[in-house]
Design goal:
Strand order of the largest sheet: 26-25-33-29-34-31-32-30
Radius of gyration: 30 Å
Helix content: 10-25%
Strand content: 25-35%
Structural class: alpha+beta
Number of strands: 45
Number of helices: 16
Shape: globular
CATH topology of the largest domain: Transferase(Phosphotransferase), domain 1
Length: 780
């Protein structure tokens, strides 16, 4: 083939770096290597997005039969009319479409369609394919494809995850229509264990997937969902509306999560707008065997004591499904009995017990332990009125510290893994422990003196910006023991400097940037000082360990006062102070810094409050540190109506007006004390910003609020702040004010006209007028 075409005919072949490219140029087919580690020397035939940077594979042909050299391999149409992958000198194919009884093999062609579907059929009419890649799912679901079950043949079309990020071999997780026949789709582990279901189809949505409800305007303003159940087949599919012009896909990941993505051109990254299941630890087998899943930990999976990762490289790629293996085997004699003194147990409290427990008759916990010890295959036991034992591997052990379960489990280990001191005399133990305490006390004193001297003499950079060592921050946070919360880019921990100053230390996760560039950007951010911007005090950069040290805000984030308690928590005066302060902070970033900084993630969770409830915009430097890579910020939106400006979805260039839109959406929430979108005991949802815009035009905006919400504010002031919010969320960014103009309007220095109802929000609020969001009556 001399040029890129969308069609492969019977007298052509494709090899090396040759490709088929769909007519619109959006998809390409050819030989590829997975970009993740561990894929060296293995090549596959696949389809990927041709216009998107990086590698996003949507289909793989020879998943289980990789080739070692694409130059000496070909993709061609064989004499029997099958599309095959084979070595040049071999007649036996490595992979084939396996079309039976092709009556006209010489007229057979393969064509890559604009949908990303590869079809094999007879030229010139391929509209009735003999075979298509859409019938041969890998891990990706493209618009127009179907999860289906043929009722006559029993054929099931399902998605199956990759084995790991570097290996497209079918993995442990899949998604398909419910094998039991219920009108829903389910996620399965090992094709046998269902760990999540969508809920039954209700006629226009699935009961367990509110994100796809017709009243949830996004993604329904972009997608059309269809579930069909007839005599021939049952299937679920989705399509993208013709005017949307976006790339979108769904995947079942190597971690067992089902996710849906949309490509954001301006950010040059995929945005996740849908993920199931929400709780990562509910994915069966996600952490593999002999490990524990922790929902709130920085790393969800960890090996149990006495075990190590089976494949450490996979854990680096966030694939834990292979689990963990023992450091030291258990000591069993040839006859299968156990030398009891050579094995022991260690206890883990507050857990959700593993699956596949066996109930054993035992009067007490001691008898339960002996029963386990006397069985060579017994790996753990638990006793809470009933004796439970586990044989061989442990699956789905979960940490429930902080609530959920008081169960405890005893894990069996070899003697060398248990520090067994029963054979020692108590006086020897006392001497050893006493000596250890004295030695530790002395070492601790020396360590504290050294640390305080070192931290007290830390290098100053950029005036007051401090460069910390990672060990310093471990010391200041007591090894990161007190977590304040988690943000878009990592967890935040409380620390105390030697001068008793409390600080907030953010550990950046999934963050990759060169040392020189990171220090340069941090230096710039550290030089920014404004009373409404959180102050950066220092940083740490040691390889992949990147941390930022901020001033500590004792009152926490704004969302805590708006959504976690009564809206009466904040007075109107404080709300106005917060609204103006945030606007001033953003105006400084947009208009007064040497380099304009666009925040890209304005929401109540990123607004911190000091002791006087003066607001400070947080995380404003992360957009600058990340450049155009905003994907981690965007993943938090999940596709529900939030704070994203419409230009994020349309792929237009992002300016400071994207922050203005997000500020406007947040301002509605500050006014009302509630989320813009809330469930009120019905399947309908109501979008508050549209109600405000419409009531403003009718001169009745005050009727949306109960008197307790607007106590101490005049109707004029209420209308002014509502006008500002509505102007900030206009469709056209040129119609939105700058943040400097917002400050002047809120402070009463500039008057503002009535805004039109934003058409973008009207689309989002389609059908929402039937449900009232806020009562105008006082709360009883």
């Amino acid at each position: 083939m001399h040029r890129a075409s969308d069609t492969l005919t019977a007298n052509q072949q494709l090899s090396g770096n040759q490709k088929l490219i769909s007519q619109d140029g959006n998809f390409a087919l050819g030989f590829f290597q997975p970009s993740a580690e561990g894929s060296n020397g293995k090549w596959y035939i696949g389809i990927w997005y041709n216009k998107i940077p990086g590698q996003t594979i949507v289909w793989v042909a020879n998943r289980e039969t990789p080739i070692s050299d694409p130059i000496s391999s070909i993709l061609t149409i064989s004499d029997d009319g099958n599309l095959v992958v084979r070595l040049n000198n071999s007649e036996s194919p490595m992979w084939s479409t396996n079309i039976k009884n092709n009556t006209a093999p010489t007229s057979t062609v393969a064509m890559l369609l604009n949908t990303g579907n590869l079809v094999v059929g007879h030229a010139p009419n391929t509209s009735t394919p003999l075979w298509q890649s859409f019938d041969d799912f890998t891990d990706t679901w493209l618009p127009g494809n179907k999860l289906s079950r043929n009722k006559k043949t029993g054929t099931v079309k399902r998605m199956i995850s990759w084995k790991d990020h570097g290996d497209p071999t079918p993995g442990m997780f899949s998604i398909e229509l419910d094998p039991k026949g219920s009108p829903q789709y389910v996620l399965l582990w090992n094709s046998s264990v269902v760990y999540w279901g969508s809920g039954n189809w209700t006629g226009n949505s699935f009961s367990g997937v509110p994100e796809l409800s017709p009243t949830n305007s996004y993604p329904n303003s972009v997608y059309t969902f269809q579930f069909v159940d007839n005599d021939e087949e049952t299937y679920f599919t989705y399509t993208v509306k013709s005017d949307a012009k976006i790339f979108t896909r769904g995947t079942v990941d190597v971690t067992g999560l089902f996710q849906a993505f949309v490509w954001i051109e301006a950010a040059q990254s995929w945005m996740t707008f849908f993920t199931q299941p929400k709780a990562k630890c509910s994915v069966y087998g996600m952490c593999g065997e002999n490990s524990m899943c922790s929902e709130n930990a920085a790393s969800s999976c960890s090996c149990l004591k006495g075990f190590i990762e089976t494949y450490p490289n996979n854990w680096v790629l966030n694939d834990h499904t292979a689990g963990c293996r023992r450091n030291v085997p258990l000591k069993c004699e040839n006859n299968g009995s156990v030398k009891a003194k050579q094995d022991g147990f260690y206890q883990i409290n507050s857990v959700k017990l593993p699956d596949n427990a066996h109930i054993i008759n035992a009067d007490n916990i001691h008898d339960c332990e002996l029963i386990c010890l006397n069985n060579c295959s017994c790996t753990a036991y638990s006793h809470n009125g009933t004796c439970l034992v586990w044989h061989d591997r442990l699956m789905n052990l979960q940490d429930s510290a902080g609530g959920g379960s008081d169960d405890r489990i005893f894990i069996r280990l070899a003697a060398s893994e248990i520090h067994n001191s029963e054979t020692k005399k108590w006086w020897v133990i006392g001497i050893i422990i006493g000596g250890f305490i004295i030695l530790s006390f002395g070492v601790t004193i020396i360590y504290f003196i050294h640390k305080r001297r070192r931290i007290g003499s830390i290098d100053q950079q950029g005036g007051s910006l401090i460069s910390f060592k990672y060990s310093d921050l471990q010391f200041l946070t007591r090894n990161f023991s007190e977590r304040l919360g988690a943000g878009s880019f990592g967890s935040v921990f409380k620390g105390v400097l030697p001068d008793k100053t409390t600080v907030a230390i953010k550990k950046l996760e999934g963050f990759h940037q060169g040392e020189k560039q990171f220090r340069a950007e941090v230096s710039t951010i550290g030089s920014i000082h404004h009373m409404n911007l959180i102050r950066l005090l220092g940083f740490c950069s040691e390889g992949v360990k990147k941390l930022l040290v901020y001033e500590y805000m004792p009152n926490g984030s704004l969302d805590k006062y708006m959504f976690d308690s009564s809206p009466n928590t904040l007075s109107w005066k404080i709300k106005h102070q917060i609204a103006v302060g945030i606007a001033k902070g953003l105006a400084y970033l947009h208009e007064e810094c040497r380099d304009c900084i666009i925040h890209c993630d304005i929401k109540p969770e990123n607004i911190l409050l000091d002791t006087s409830f003066v607001p400070k915009v947080a995380d404003f430097g992360l957009a600058k540190l990340l450049g155009r890579n905003f994907s981690r910020v965007l993943t938090s939106m999940r596709g529900t109506v939030g704070y994203l400006a419409p230009e994020w979805i349309s792929g237009e260039a992002i300016t400071t007006k994207a922050d203005v839109f997000s500020y406007g959406m947040m301002l509605f929430e500050i006014i009302s004390g509630k989320r813009n979108l809330e469930h009120k005991g019905t399947s309908m949802e109501t979008f508050f910003p549209v109600l405000v815009a419409r009531k403003l035009l009718a001169g009745e905006v005050h009727t949306l609020f109960g008197s307790e919400l607007i106590n101490g504010v005049s109707v004029g002031d209420l209308e002014r702040i509502c006008k500002v919010a509505c102007w900030c969320v206009q469709d056209n960014e040129n119609s939105r004010p700058t943040m400097g103009e917002v400050v002047k309007i809120l402070e009463g220095l500039v008057d503002v006209e009535l805004p039109p109802v934003p058409r973008y929000l009207e689309v989002l609020a389609d059908g929402s007028e039937n449900v009232r969001f806020f009562s105008s009556e006082p709360t009883k």
